């Protein structure tokens, strides 16, 4: 059993302190907490209380001379506002009861001697919390197999937990989301541009036929415990842990984007991680003219990605009809794709070796596509995008994107955002973007032209 093996070999040491843990719950949610206000516990109390839930908060920081003041404030708030029920022998884990029914398990990863290593950050914090959740699920203390994970800058919908009641067979679930709009107009513009770029990228992947066309926002995930164990948990990274775990999880099962309910994520400038929402906003607000200077991937890149992915069945067929030596593979790729720029970038990703491995380990097209998509995953797709950007197709601003009018936007709600944004002003107001954000908040599913992903289910 993958879960038992993971817990015995790869789980964090915190899981060894749970032998006498007293509680039992239906749901569990993990929240990393660094330099945050205690307000997130108050804001989300209703969502926490709509089901029998355990909220695991990992209060963390890297080694420093002083303990983070907000971390201390959160701990003091919990100690004075909640009822202590249990504490581990090493006093790292403390279970509290709220006044309204839900329970809170605080993990001390910020006190001297307990702080997280530099550069492990939010990834290790999520892993500690999720490992604890896995251990409790394995021991029968958590009824549902889903490990919810979010952040301390969100407002959760009241039906957050029960939204997963009728979902089965997936490796992970992704909640739709919307970014809140700050009062500062420059930050409001920045979050709209950034939000649009996230959805634009996924729309491009979907149109190209990539099976990795889903959002990778850590505050919107629910991961199945068994699949979590198969990929050995969250990577210990200071950022990007959501992207990398979803990249692995897609190879073990489906990633399902829920139609509802939407999570509201705060739009704020932040120093907490080296990249992500907060870091992106910090960069965008410093642009002289964000509407002019903020750029998106050139849409031709997604056309070339689509060309490669849709060429795979023909590559398989031609290799099946001939000797599959390395020279034959190179010649087949050139003949089928017929685009020198794309082939050159693919060669930097060792596409020959990837196709050779997939072909030699497959007896059917179905198996070949499965192997190829495991190899040409979200990370390699991103490297292809960056290779084409850096070598041939520089990024474009929102006005240029409208002029290029890529096919995959023409039938999507994202196209309305481009038109409204460009029509109102080159140094825009924010009314049109507020309308588009409001319409997108209903669902993260983008209606695109029919293009079935080339994936073996």
What fraction, in percent, of the residue positions are helical?
40-55%
Summarize model confidence as the mean pLDDT: 87
Report the strand count.
12
Q: Given the helix and strand composition, which structural class is it?
A: alpha/beta
Domain count: the total is: 2
Briefly say what this structure is.
With 457 residues, the protein is α/β, with parallel strands linked by helices. It has helices at residues 2-9, 39-43, 45-49, 69-81, 121-138, 185-208, 225-230, 241-249, 277-284, 290-293, 299-320, 326-337, 340-348, 351-360, 365-375, 378-391, 398-404, 407-410, 413-424, 431-440, and strands spanning 27-33, 53-60, 83-87, 93-97, 103-109, 146-149, 154-155, 170-174, 177-179, 221-224, 254-257, 263-265.
Task: Furnish the topology, listing elements before pairings.
Blueprint: H1 2-9, E1 27-33, H2 39-43, H3 45-49, E2 53-60, H4 69-81, E3 83-87, E4 93-97, E5 103-109, H5 121-138, E6 146-149, E7 154-155, E8 170-174, E9 177-179, H6 185-208, E10 221-224, H7 225-230, H8 241-249, E11 254-257, E12 263-265, H9 277-284, H10 290-293, H11 299-320, H12 326-337, H13 340-348, H14 351-360, H15 365-375, H16 378-391, H17 398-404, H18 407-410, H19 413-424, H20 431-440
Parallel strand pairs: 1-2, 1-6, 2-5, 8-11, 9-12
Antiparallel strand pairs: 3-4, 4-5, 6-10, 7-12, 8-10
Helix pairs in contact: 6-9, 6-11, 11-12, 12-14, 13-16, 14-15, 17-19, 19-20
């Amino acid at each position: 059993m993958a879960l038992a093996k993971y817990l015995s070999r790869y789980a964090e040491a915190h899981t060894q302190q749970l032998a006498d843990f007293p509680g039992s719950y239906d749901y569990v949610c993990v929240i990393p907490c660094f330099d945050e206000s205690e307000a997130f516990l108050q804001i989300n109390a209703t969502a926490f209380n709509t089901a029998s839930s355990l909220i695991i908060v990992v209060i963390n920081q890297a080694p420093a001379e002083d303990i983070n003041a907000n971390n201390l404030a959160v701990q003091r708030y919990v100690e004075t506002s909640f009822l202590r029920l249990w504490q581990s022998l090493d006093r790292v884990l403390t279970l509290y009861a709220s006044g309204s029914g839900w329970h809170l398990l605080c993990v001390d990863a910020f006190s001297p001697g307990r702080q997280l290593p530099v550069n492990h950050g939010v990834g290790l914090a999520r892993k500690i919390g999720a490992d604890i959740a896995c251990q409790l699920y394995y021991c029968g203390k958590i009824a549902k197999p889903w490990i919810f994970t979010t952040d301390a800058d969100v407002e959760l919908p009241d039906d957050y937990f029960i939204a997963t009641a009728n979902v089965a067979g997936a490796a992970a679930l992704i909640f739709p989301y919307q970014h809140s709009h700050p009062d500062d107009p420059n930050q409001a513009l920045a979050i709209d541009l950034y939000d649009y770029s996230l959805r634009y990228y996924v729309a491009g992947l979907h149109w190209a036929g990539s099976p990795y066309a889903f959002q990778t926002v850590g505050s919107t995930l629910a991961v199945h415990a068994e699949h979590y164990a198969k990929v050995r948990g969250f990577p210990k990274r200071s950022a990007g842990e959501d992207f990398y775990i979803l990249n692995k999880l897609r190879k073990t099962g489906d990633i399902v984007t829920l139609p509802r309910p939407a999570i509201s994520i705060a739009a704020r400038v932040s120093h907490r991680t080296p990249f992500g929402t907060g870091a992106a906003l910090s960069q965008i607000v410093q642009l002289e003219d964000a509407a002019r200077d903020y750029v998106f991937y050139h849409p031709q890149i997604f056309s070339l990605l689509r060309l490669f992915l849709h060429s795979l069945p023909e590559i398989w067929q031609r290799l099946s009809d001939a000797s599959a030596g390395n020279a034959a593979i190179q010649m087949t790729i050139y003949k089928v794709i017929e685009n020198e720029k794309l082939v050159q970038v693919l060669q930097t990703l060792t596409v020959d070796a990837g196709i050779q491995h997939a072909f030699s380990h497959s007896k059917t097209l179905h198996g070949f596509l499965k192997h190829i998509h495991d190899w040409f995953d979200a990370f390699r797709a991103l490297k292809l995008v960056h290779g084409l950007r850096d070598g041939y197709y520089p990024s474009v601003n929102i006005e240029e994107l409208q002029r290029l009018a890529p096919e995959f936007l023409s039938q999507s709600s994202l196209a309305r955002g481009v038109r409204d944004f460009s029509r109102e002003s080159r140094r825009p107001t924010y009314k049109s973007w507020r309308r588009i954000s409001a319409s997108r908040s209903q669902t993260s599913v983008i209606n695109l032209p029919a293009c079935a992903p080339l994936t073996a289910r």
